[in-house]
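Hi R.,

As promised on Friday, here is the backbone we talked about, encoded as structure tokens. Could you run it through your design pipeline when you get a chance and send me back a sequence?
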């Protein structure tokens, strides 16, 4: 069996929610392992009940060292890319 791609999300608002909805429909291919936002409660709400083992944080240093994270989806508003 192929390993799942372990994803982190930067920015946990509307853009991330739409991307995460697609990712969650493919659990054999992807796993969300982290969420970074400027507001802790937004990151936690984004992860919700689907990704209990994932890290929700406002600290980029903690986010970047999530073990085994393969890729990051940057879903902040366009003006912040």
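Update: got your reply. Pasting your designed sequence below so it's all in one thread:
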């Amino acid at each position: 069996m192929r390993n799942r791609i372990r994803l982190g999300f930067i920015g946990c608002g509307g853009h991330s929610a739409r991307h995460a909805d697609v990712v969650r429909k493919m659990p054999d291919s992807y796993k969300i392992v982290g969420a970074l936002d400027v507001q802790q409660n937004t990151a936690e709400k984004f992860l919700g009940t689907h990704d209990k083992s994932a890290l929700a944080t406002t600290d980029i240093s903690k986010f970047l060292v999530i073990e085994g994270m393969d890729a990051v989806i940057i879903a902040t508003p366009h003006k912040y890319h």
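One thing I noticed while checking it: The beta strands are 5-10, 30-36, 55-57, 71-74.

Thanks again,
M.
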